[in-house]
Amino acid sequence: MDEVSDSKTKIKELLSSHIGVEPEDIDEEDFFSEDLHMTPTDLTDFTHLLEKEGFNTTHLDFTELETVGDLIEALSSHEEIK
């Protein structure tokens, strides 16, 4: 597995644990608010969880990130900075 695949898997595992669903039930096309029913508070809490796991989240702006795939791409593109 390459680093992007590892990151994708880790992000989905963390998200699934955070919102209480199975990782295989999360698709990259899922929208945070519409599909996963996450509130702004949920997203903030999830950002803190990502930070604890070593992801660089300083550049994240959830007003621009709508889907799980958007988040994976944003975190993967900044992974070398963490």
From TrEMBL:
Pfam family, one: PP-binding
Domain spans labelled Carrier: 5-79
InterPro entries: ACP-like_sf, PP-bd_ACP
Name the record gives this protein: Carrier domain-containing protein
